């Protein structure tokens, strides 16, 4: 089986000779500290050997719950935010038909994502859309108390019970949450929902290979065994026994840290040439942003969909401040073939492309952009993915996870916490007069009055 291939030559050429190799010791130490559980945040390392330790029985259990929802639902709403939704969405969109949201999917239930915002119109439109649908809900929240998700679940639970009756609703509502703590667990126990546990030692953004990602992906009709197999193979390819020079995650962690610390490259742009990968980049942004952005440090993770964004962000990338580098997700082989037809009149002047595949043009756009951006001073990392299927997406997921763990350690932060996320929540709860936030409510009202 092929592997995803990392090419850092067009990035290391922006660094002093030997710069990437100079990280070898640090990267190897970081990799070992993950393995030995001696790194900061070592109580959140449950993802490290997840792919190789998932049992066939567990996969079968997830598949059987997925089959029940597939049988009983036209639509399944995945309620979750951050790590509790981005991974599932990334995989489902990467593997699914780009137009199933318009045409419906005859074989599989529609998967709809909610609980990731507090848009009133979004929720109104969602509940309207669901009015005549047989729908189910997966309530995903590790803490079980996240406002966006809990609010959405409250609405959807009621609607599901009203439309299907309490007994039938019980069969199509699943909770994925902590084993004991949180409101989502309490509700699931009281209502008798099927539940899956998010292990204590797996943080949200590292949880896509737990039921958090696997259940929605299986409901959408994708092969979760192949996904796990891909991840397990990448686990092997990035183990402590793999030399630095042959370990793609080690090299990725090294080159991005070198670009950041030695070449002033503060922004990494994740680029794709397949619109289906938009949410892969969203997932990656959360993984790296929440893991590395702390203690006044961290590369800012951004993303662009090319060639679309070459007509918007392309100018900035080519000639703006030279503080960026690109990481390109390049898909070697598309799943379908479209040939440009010949046109006798050739009014559009495109006959020079007649008989060529669309992907040939896309690949030339990719190569041309790479050359132009490198000439313009943008280091370029390339990840070549043989094709878009479950197996290679599994490889990609684990590659980014392990590289993130290593990279955060090299940066000198704890990649597994997210203390900064609490600041907005505290203010929001104070402003909404949430019980328990009385002192904060008083303080924030005084501050707003003083600022008025
Ligand atoms: O990575 C993380 O830990 C976060 O992004 C969480 O996934 C997100 O905040 C959602 O939290 P919860 O699953 O507790 O609702």
Automatic annotation (TrEMBL):
<dbReference type="InterPro" id="IPR046348">
    <property type="entry name" value="SIS_dom_sf"/>
</dbReference>
<feature type="active site" description="Proton donor">
    <location>
        <position position="290"/>
    </location>
</feature>
<dbReference type="GO" id="GO:0006096">
    <property type="term" value="P:glycolytic process"/>
</dbReference>
<protein>
    <recommendedName>
        <fullName>Glucose-6-phosphate isomerase</fullName>
        <ecNumber>5.3.1.9</ecNumber>
    </recommendedName>
</protein>
<dbReference type="Pfam" id="PF00342">
    <property type="entry name" value="PGI"/>
</dbReference>
<comment type="function">
    <text>Catalyzes the reversible isomerization of glucose-6-phosphate to fructose-6-phosphate.</text>
</comment>
<comment type="similarity">
    <text>Belongs to the GPI family.</text>
</comment>
<dbReference type="GO" id="GO:0006094">
    <property type="term" value="P:gluconeogenesis"/>
</dbReference>
<dbReference type="GO" id="GO:0048029">
    <property type="term" value="F:monosaccharide binding"/>
</dbReference>
<keyword id="KW-0963">Cytoplasm</keyword>
<dbReference type="InterPro" id="IPR001672">
    <property type="entry name" value="G6P_Isomerase"/>
</dbReference>
<dbReference type="GO" id="GO:0005829">
    <property type="term" value="C:cytosol"/>
</dbReference>
<dbReference type="GO" id="GO:0004347">
    <property type="term" value="F:glucose-6-phosphate isomerase activity"/>
</dbReference>
<keyword id="KW-0324">Glycolysis</keyword>
<dbReference type="InterPro" id="IPR018189">
    <property type="entry name" value="Phosphoglucose_isomerase_CS"/>
</dbReference>
<comment type="pathway">
    <text>Carbohydrate degradation; glycolysis; D-glyceraldehyde 3-phosphate and glycerone phosphate from D-glucose: step 2/4.</text>
</comment>
<comment type="pathway">
    <text>Carbohydrate biosynthesis; gluconeogenesis.</text>
</comment>
<keyword id="KW-0413">Isomerase</keyword>
<keyword id="KW-0312">Gluconeogenesis</keyword>
<dbReference type="InterPro" id="IPR035476">
    <property type="entry name" value="SIS_PGI_1"/>
</dbReference>
<dbReference type="GO" id="GO:0051156">
    <property type="term" value="P:glucose 6-phosphate metabolic process"/>
</dbReference>
<dbReference type="GO" id="GO:0097367">
    <property type="term" value="F:carbohydrate derivative binding"/>
</dbReference>
<feature type="active site">
    <location>
        <position position="425"/>
    </location>
</feature>
<dbReference type="InterPro" id="IPR035482">
    <property type="entry name" value="SIS_PGI_2"/>
</dbReference>
